[in-house]
Structures are given as C-alpha cells and as structure tokens.
Amino acid sequence: MSAEESGWEVDPDDEWGVAVVATVGRQLRLRREAVGMSAADFGVALGYGEDLVYKIEGGKRIPRPEYLDKADEVLRADGLLSAMKDDVAKVRYPKKVRELATLEAKAVEMQLYEPLNVHGLLQTPEYARGLLMMRRPSYTQDEVERYMAARVARKSVFDRDPAPELSFVLEEWTLRRPLGGRTVLRRQLEHLLEVARWRQVELQVMPMRREEHAGLAGGIEVLKFEDGTAVGRSPAVAGGRPVTDLRQLRILELRYGIIRTQALTPGESAAVIEQLLGET
User: Fold this and answer.
1) Which residues are within 8 A (CB) of 223 and not within 5 positions of it... i.e. 6 or more apart?
2) 279, exposed or middle or buried, with CB in 10 Å at 0-12, 13-18, 19+?
3) Rounded to whole angstroms, what are the CA distances from 202 to 37, 75, 77, 111?
4) Which of the residue ranges 86-95, 232-241, 248-257, 271-280 would you say has the lowest mean pLDDT?
5) Which of 101, 107, 103 lies closest to 228, judged by CA?
6) Which ranges of 61-118 would DSSP assign to H, the alpha helix?
7) pLDDT value at 155 more than 90
8) Which residue(s) pair with 230 in the sheet?
9) Regarding beta strands 165-171 and 107-114, do their DSSP bridges make them parallel or antiparallel, or are they unpaired?
C-alpha cells in the first residue's frame, strides 16, 4: 500500500494540527520501542512500508484511522492509540475548512449565497470531486482527498437535532453547467430536490432572466448563534475575512435579504430544478 493510500500530508501552516500529529507520532514511536520492535518489523505487521512508519512517527504524515487501530492491536496499547483517532480526524481537514465546520456546527441559522457553483453543503461527492479536480493550479491527489473528506464531514450539520434553519440561494446557470458530466449533474439536481423537501431548508434559485441582482459583489455567508451573536463573510466585505462587527453584518444581511426577494420562491425553484433535470 502506498503512502498516499495510508495517510495525509501535514499542513505546515496549521500549528495545532502540526502539534497533534507530532504528539501522535511520538506516542507511536515510544510504544513501538517499548516492545522492542523495529520500524521495519512494525511496518510489516501493519502492512505498510518502513518509510511511512518513520514519516508518521516523525510527525510528517497524518495516519489514517485504520493505521491507529492496527497499531493499537500490534502494540497491545489497550485502546490508547485508537483513542487518538478523534483528534487525528480533525487534523486531516484543511485548517480553514475545519474552522468553518466548527462555526457551522454551532450555528442555529445560516444564510448562504454561492454565485459560482452549488454550495459546498449541497454538493454530492461526485460533484465536489469534479470541482476539486478542475482547480488550477491543480490540487495534489492528497489535497483532493482531504478536501473531499472535509466536505463530507461538514454535511453532519443536516443531522443535528434540533436542526439549524438553512437558507440557500443558488444561481440558475450553475445548475445548467454539466461540470463533471451530465450524469454527475443529474445526480446533483436530484440531490437538490431531495434537500429542498427538508423542513429546515429553504432553497431558492436566482433565475438567469433577472434584470436586477444584489449579489454581483460575490458570495455571502451569515451564521447566527444561539446567544444572539453572528459571523459573516463575503469577498465584498473586509477582504473576505470573517466579520462580527454589527455594521458589516447589517450590510451582508441587507444584501442577502434583497437577493432572496429577487430569487424565485422555494416552490418555483423546485419546479425549475425539476425542469432542468428533465432536460439533462
């Protein structure tokens, strides 16, 4: 099995992630040395190469969950190594995605407008992979897998109880462009129709024929929390950095509110998606 199939590269700019991976690697090495097993023999016992063992123990590579489970068994660690899977699972996601997922997990209301493609929370795995593969300069296969894993993990927001209130506005043209092929687009449209039926979701489409549009300055994200605070983000405000200032949040909510009034109603939007599905 190759290194690419058994672990992920560590983001050097992610200080917390670097520290976690270094700690996990050190624990693995100490456990291995305590039982008198060489890196080569340990690799054979796990089914991985000696080089990968050294990379993981040196904090250069993030081990997959199955690596830790097997290591726990081989080194008779009584679950101590397997217990590190939760922290390692968080590290495998890129820092900026992990921070966003943390906010989404706490939000009780989200207002989301994405002008360039289907919003990440609504993407099927096939659609998401297609977008990642189109990026230029290209992502490495390792980066594609990490972003895919992170995107899938973010979808847990739909499973929360009570569920947050979610409002999405999508551009019609993004639902027409067959990114990744028509089969991928069909599955994406089917998924949107499924999500649109969920009680906590309001999904609207901005029609191409609309002559006025308040969202030309870029996407909008506004996340509201139970304590009354909120955080927003848009390329048109503060250079795209997250903002909590009330004046800036008011601007984002104003723009989002106008975008919603300009978009089709949820019922009209579902009808458009059904029509596009029939044409695809």
Assistant:
1) 103, 104, 107, 109, 110, 111, 230, 231, 232
2) exposed
3) 57, 51, 48, 10
4) 86-95
5) 107
6) 65-74, 85-91, 95-106
7) no
8) 224
9) parallel
pLDDT 10s digits, 189-233: 999 999 999 999 999 999 999 999 999 999 999 999 999 999 999
Mean pLDDT throughout 87-93?
80
What's the CA gap between 262 and 115, in Å, rounded?
14
- Average the pLDDT over 165-193 and give the result: 96
Q: Distance of alpha carbon 168 from its chain centroid, rounded?
A: 16
Contact between 57 and 109 under an 8 Å Cβ cutoff? The reply is no
Cis peptide before 235 (omega within 30 of 0): no
- Distance CA(63)–CA(89), nearest Å, equals 9
Kind and range of the H or E element at 188?
A: helix 182-196
Confidence of residue 1 (pLDDT cuts 50, 70, 90): very low
For residue 191, CA distances in Å to 87, 134, 153, 187, 205 come to 31, 21, 17, 6, 15
**Burial readout 112-148 (b: 16 or more C-beta within 10 A, e: otherwise):** bbbbebbbbbbbbebbbbbbbeeeeeeeeeebbbbbe
Q: Cis omega before residue 137 (within 30°)?
A: yes
What is the share, in percent, of the chain residues with pLDDT greater than 90? Answer: 74
Angle between the 125-134 and 182-196 helix axes, to the nearest 10 degrees? 130
Q: Which residues contact 38 (CB under 8 A, 6 or more apart)?
A: none
Q: By the 8 A CB rule, do 69 and 82 touch?
A: yes
pLDDT of 7-62, one tens digit each?
677 778 788 889 999 999 999 999 999 999 999 999 999 999 999 999 999 999 99
Collapse the DSSP code of 171 into the 3-class scheme (helix H, G, I; strand E, B; otherwise coil) and give the result: strand
Residue reference for tokens 């009034």: 261
